[in-house]
Design goal:
Elements: H1 15-32, E1 46-51, H2 57-68, E2 72-77, H3 89-97, E3 103-108, H4 113-117, E4 124-130, H5 136-150, E5 157-161, H6 168-179, E6 183-187, E7 203-205, H7 208-214, E8 217-220, H8 225-228, H9 236-243, H10 247-253, E9 258-260, H11 273-276, H12 283-301
Parallel strand pairs: 1-2, 1-3, 3-4, 5-6, 5-8, 6-7, 8-9
Length: 309
C-alpha cells in the first residue's frame, strides 16, 4: 500500500502515497462521526509521542488518533525526562525502542532530527514538525480539507500568506500541493519570504489583494515572533494593514474564497476573528481532518487491520 516506511516530509514523497492517505482518511472521518469513535485497527501496537518542543494541537491530535485506533500510547516530554540530566539523543531513543515500541511520532526544534532518528531505531518514524523544515501531517490534513471542499486538488489555486520563512507548514504545503498538481502563490513581506523559493515551482506576490483575487483558497500563516529573533517588519499593526485577512478586505473581493489557518491564530494580526469564525473559514474542519488523517497515516504505516463489519 505504502512505498515509504517513514513519513519525514513531503519533499519528494510519492504523490500516490499522499493520495492513499487522504482516501483512507475519509474512511476514518466516517468513524469519527459515529457514536462509538473507536476501531481495533492498531490493537497491540505501541506508539511513543516523542516531543522535544511544546505542542498542543498536534500532540492532542496524534494522541486522539492513536486511541481511536486502539493503540497503546506513551507520551514523552523532554522537559521532564533524563534529557535534563544530560542523556544523549541517541541513548534516549534507543532506550525507548528497547521497550519494543512500533512507531515514534517526533517533534523537535532542529531540522532533520526525525531523519537522524531513523538511523538509531527500527520503528516507524513520523515527523510532527522539525524546526523550520517540515510539518508533513499538517500539510496532509490541509490537502484533505481542500479535497473535501472542492472535490479535487489538481488545478486548484492556493495562496499561502504570511511568515513563509519560519513556517514548516508552508514548506510541507508547497511540496504537497505542487506534487498533486495545484498552483501555489506565496504572499507576505519580502523579509518573510525565503530567497530562491520560486525554484520549488511557486509564484511570489507582495500584494495580498491580488492573491485573493486569483486564489480559490488561502492558507493564512501565523507570524512566528518567537522564531524571528529580530523584528522583520515595523509593527503588527502595519502587518495587519498590508497583509491581514480582515472582514473589510474579504468583503471587497466579493467571492467565495475558502479561508484556512493551521493554528494557533494571532487574531487581529494575520486574521480577524470575524473572518476566522465566518462560513468561508474551514479551520474547524481542518482540526477534525487532522485526527482522521493522522489515523490514516498511523494505520497505513503500521499495517493496521481492516475493521470487521
Amino acid at each position: 500500500m505504502m512505498t515509504e516506511k517513514h513519513l519525514l516530509g513531503l519533499e519528494g514523497y510519492p504523490a500516490e502515497n499522499i493520495e492513499t492517505i487522504i482516501d483512507t482518511a475519509f474512511g476514518f472521518r466516517e468513524v469519527l462521526e459515529r457514536p462509538i469513535k473507536k476501531v481495533p485497527s492498531l490493537q497491540g501496537k505501541t506508539i511513543v509521542n516523542l516531543f522535544y518542543e511544546n505542542s498542543t494541537r498536534t500532540r492532542i491530535s496524534f494522541e486522539l488518533a492513536q486511541k481511536r485506533l486502539s493503540a497503546d500510547t506513551i507520551n514523552f516530554s523532554a522537559s521532564s525526562s533524563s534529557v535534563n540530566k544530560g542523556e544523549s539523543f541517541k541513548d534516549t531513543v534507543q532506550n525507548i525502542e528497547a521497550m519494543k515500541i512500533d512507531a515514534i511520532v517526533m517533534r523537535h526544534p532542529h531540522p532533520g532530527a526525525p531523519l537522524h532518528l531513523t538511523k538509531f531505531v527500527d520503528a516507524v518514524v513520523i515527523n510532527a514538525g522539525d524546526g523550520t523544515h517540515e510539518h508533513p501531517t499538517q500539510a496532509i490534513l490541509d490537502l484533505m480539507s481542500l479535497k473535501e471542499h472542492f472535490g479535487k486538488i489538481k488545478g486548484l489555486k492556493v495562496g499561502i500568506i504570511g511568515d513563509i520563512s519560519h513556517s514548516r507548514v508552508a514548506l510541507s504545503n508547497i511540496h504537497g500541493l505542487i506534487n498533486l498538481g495545484a498552483k501555489v502563490t506565496l504572499c507576505g513581506p519580502p523579509t518573510l519570504i525565503p530567497k530562491y523559493i520560486e525554484k520549488l515551482g511557486v509564484n511570489i506576490s507582495y500584494n495580498v489583494d491580488e492573491v485573493m483575487d486569483w486564489a480559490d483558497a488561502i492558507n493564512v500563516l501565523r507570524i512566528q515572533m518567537e522564531r524571528m529573533g529580530v523584528g522583520l517588519f515595523p509593527s503588527t499593526r502595519e502587518y495587519r494593514n498590508l497583509f491581514g485577512i480582515t472582514h473589510e478586505r474579504l468583503n471587497k473581493h466579493n467571492k467565495k474564497l475558502v479561508i484556512m489557518h493551521p493554528g494557533p491564530m494571532n487574531r487581529g494580526v494575520e486574521i480577524d476573528s470575524n473572518v476566522a469564525d465566518s462560513e468561508q473559514a474551514i479551520i474547524l474542519d481542518q482540526v477534525l481532518n487532522g485526527v482522521a488523517s493522522r489515523m490514516a497515516i498511523l494505520y497505513l504505516l503500521l499495517g493496521g487491520k481492516q475493521e470487521e463489519n
